[in-house]
Amino acid sequence: MPAPDLLSRPEGWGFNRVTLMLGGLVLLVGVIPLVAALVLFQLHSQTEVEKAEIAAHRMATLLMRSFEQAVEPIDALLQNFASGHDTTAAPYQIYEQLKDFNVPASLVQLAVTDKNGVMVATSLAPPGPEKVDLSDREHIRVHMGKDPAKGQLFISKPVLGRVSKKYTIQLTRPLTDAHGEFAGVVVASYAISDFIDFYKQLRIEDGELIALMGTDGIARARATNKTSFGDDVSTSPAFIAAMQQGGGTYRQASTIDGVERVGYTVRSGKYPILVSVAYSTDFVRAQTADFKAAIWSTAAGLSIALLVVVAVGGSYLNLQKRLEAQEVQALARQREAKVLDAISRVPGVSVMHVTPDGATEIGSPPDGALGCLLRTYLGSRRFRTLVEDLSEPRHINEHLSDGETDIEAEIVVAPLQGMDRGGLGVQEVVVVAVDQTQRRMEENKLYQMSKLASLGEVATGLAHEINQPLGVIRLAASNALTGMKMGLPPEHLVSKLDRIVQQTVRMSRIIDHMRIFGRKSDEHLQPSGPLDAVEGALQVVGAHLRLDNVEVRTTQGPDIPKVLCRQDQLEQVLINLVQNARDAIVERRARSGQDFPGLIHLSIGSEPGKAGRVLRIRVEDNGGGIPDDVRERIFQPFFTTKPPGKGTGLGLSVSFGIIRDHGGALSVENGAGGAVFTIELPALEEEQAAKAV
Ligand code: ADP
CB of 666 closer than 6 A to ligand 1? Predict the structure, then answer.
């Protein structure tokens, strides 16, 4: 069961959460204050516009009232004059009459014309001989030929007075004779510039407008940053608004000077006059500038404050998370320690915690030997190289020895995940070692058994091998006997006896070999020629192979070196490999139903390797090879694909151990026709071999 990973975090946690938090942060710190500020601006500038409209309305009403109040006494005066006027009076009398009126200062003059529009008298000077014809003037013409009873007060466009040289507007009413017929016009010339001066005193701002307009669309007086009289304003929004709706607010660019304004126009109820007051929208907006600055700084301040709150909150959360993680780590360490302690109590098990500072035994040491040897191993270069790039737990078998005690240990090295790595290069790891010496001994027994099993298997072949020379001996002996009885010459006997000797030599060689093969493996390594081992192995299994129609072909390179080994063990390995090759061929034949000729190719050669020359023995067959999933496991003890009673699963694992114990390597690959096993052993240099003998 895999160990519970106490330190892992749910996956996919980081990215979404971080994106969400960042989004929230931007919203909180940036968007909310910005939106709030924009909404406030909008509301505020709307309020400013509304305020400007109200102010314009109020001002226009006041100005209209003041204009009406200025006109009312003049009109009363004109009506008064008209009602008491005697059309038959001489001009000088009229002049006297005019003078008797208390003419207000705002009036430049009071004048009277006859029914033809010719001036009769003016309050400015006594009547002279020359005739001033005013019949072309609109304020006179407007009354001529009309019913004087319906004559209203007429307020003219501003004109530059011919006599007064001042801008005036003429307020006129018709005069009637005793029969009620039109008899002339009474004219009051009002100095409109007074009005303008008054407007100016109201401090006209840049872009502000005050306009006094007639319902005819002509400005009587217009004050912006310059003053004008008599302009045609019939297309202006102020005029159109007033004429269409009887007065009211407007927000438009002026057709006269192009300035966009917010304004209000009031229409007089008594006179054909409109008054308009307007403020430029730029001016209105400018009123919000301070407010805007204040809002911006408040929004910025709010953002900064929120940022600080978020930062403080974030670091607090981080701290909390770190503390939590530390707590989890500590808990995990405790649990791990407990689990490891429990494991260390199992007999024959030693658990070590290895850091760059050294190895510490966890739990109570068992009998000490395993711990001691393990500690030495953990300090070795071999172990440090193993640990350098370790990311997954590793399982290894090690032969631990101090010269006196030998322990076969099965070791698991596991890096501590989630923990801080101490130091560079070397990780923090846990090492669990199990003493497998006992099991190995059992295995060794099995190995012996497997050897016996092999022997049993080859017995048939051996019987055949021995039977043949025995037959030859028997025949030679009986021939010799017959020869002697027949008194044949001694040469005959010698040749037969020679034959017998030859055959016994051959037999003793086979039997000698069986002895080598059968003895217990406790002898020392000796320099031996690999070709002897190959020959020996083939002697044991050769007959069997021939019976199975499997050809063995041997090739050898030049200068085959000797190796330091126990010949019987090397033979045992070769026998295993050759028997496996034969089994594979036989199996393939059975599977395919084709009785193809079997071939096992043994090639022996040597090559220079990293640490000196290497002897290489390749055993290649045409048995079809080993499937990938099987190949990974063939060196494991007891792994077999053969039917029960046939395979033990020990051959390759034992072979692997033997070659490894000789400082070499046994490897496998698939060749063109089948499996290729390669034995590599360090070669003995010639002088070493000579010394060792
Ligand atoms: P056994 O021969 O008793 O099964 P081994 O350890 O010698 O045990 O071999 C293990 C397994 O390796 C065999 O069962 C077989 O599946 C496979 N094997 C070994 N040699 C060969 C070979 N030359 N060709 C195909 N498979 C092989």
Answer: no
Positions of E strands within 78-163: 107-113, 119-122, 154-155, 159-160
Nearest C-alpha neighbor of 226 from the set 252, 194, 191, 200: 200
Mind giving me the DSSP string for 454-499? HHHHHHHHHHHHHHHHHHHHHHHHHHHHHHHHHT--HHHHHHHHHH
**pLDDT score recorded for residue 152:** 78
| Residue with token string 């306009």 | 211
What is the pTM (predicted TM-score) of this model?
0.42
C-alpha to C-alpha distance for 140 and 583, rounded to whole angstroms: 142
pLDDT tens for 189-227 read 888 777 777 777 776 677 788 888 888 888 888 877 777
Q: Which residues contact 258 (CB under 8 A, 6 or more apart)?
A: none
| Residue 81, phi then psi, degrees to nearest 5 | -65, -45
CA-nearest of 593, 652, 655 to 626 is 652
Separation between Cα atoms, residue 413 and residue 410, nearest integer Å: 10
- SS3 of residue 248 by DSSP: strand
What range defines the domain where residue 369 resides? 350-432
Rounded Cα distance, 21 and 317, in Å: 12
Ligand 1 proximity of 675 Cβ (cutoff 6 Å)? yes
Each residue's pLDDT tens digit, 322-336: 999 899 888 887 887
The pair of structure tokens assigned to 405 is: 């005690």
Q: Which of 409, 432, 455 is the last residue of a domain?
A: 432
Q: Do residue 390 and residue 500 come from a single domain?
A: no
Our answer on whether the CB atom of 93 is closer than 6 Å to any ligand 1 atom is no
Last residue of a domain, one of 401, 432, 463: 432
**DSSP per-residue string spanning 526-575:** EEE-HHHHHHHHHHHHHHHHHHTTEEEEEEE-SSPPEEEE-HHHHHHHHH
635 lines ligand 1 (CB under 6 A): no
| Span from the CA of 326 to the centroid of ligand 1 (angstroms) | 51
Query: Do 422 and 553 share a structural domain?
Result: no
CA of 534 to the centre of ligand 1 (A): 20
For position 484, which CATH number holds? 3.30.565.10
Count of Cβ atoms closer than 10 Å to residue 190 Cβ: 24
Q: Quote the distance between the C-alpha of residue 93 and its chain's center.
A: 105
187-197 per-position pLDDT tens digit: 998 887 777 77
Distance CA 84, CA 104 (A): 19
User: Which atom in ligand 1 lies closest to the alpha carbon of residue 677?
Assistant: 23
What is the total residue count of the chain? 693
Taking the CA of residue 654 as reference, the ligand 1 atom at the shortest distance is 6
Asked, for residue 164, whether it belongs to a domain, the answer is yes
Q: Please indicate whether residue 58 or residue 12 has the higher confidence score (pLDDT).
A: 58
Mutate to test the pocket of ligand 1, among 552, 575, 622, 640 (most ligand atoms within 8 A of CB): 640
Report residue 620's pLDDT band, with 50, 70 and 90 as the boundaries.
very high
C-alpha–C-alpha distance, residues 431 and 350, integer Å = 8
5, pLDDT greater than 50: no
Q: Is the CB of 61 under 6 A from ligand 1?
A: no
Q: How far is the CA of 655 from the centre of ligand 1 (A)?
A: 12
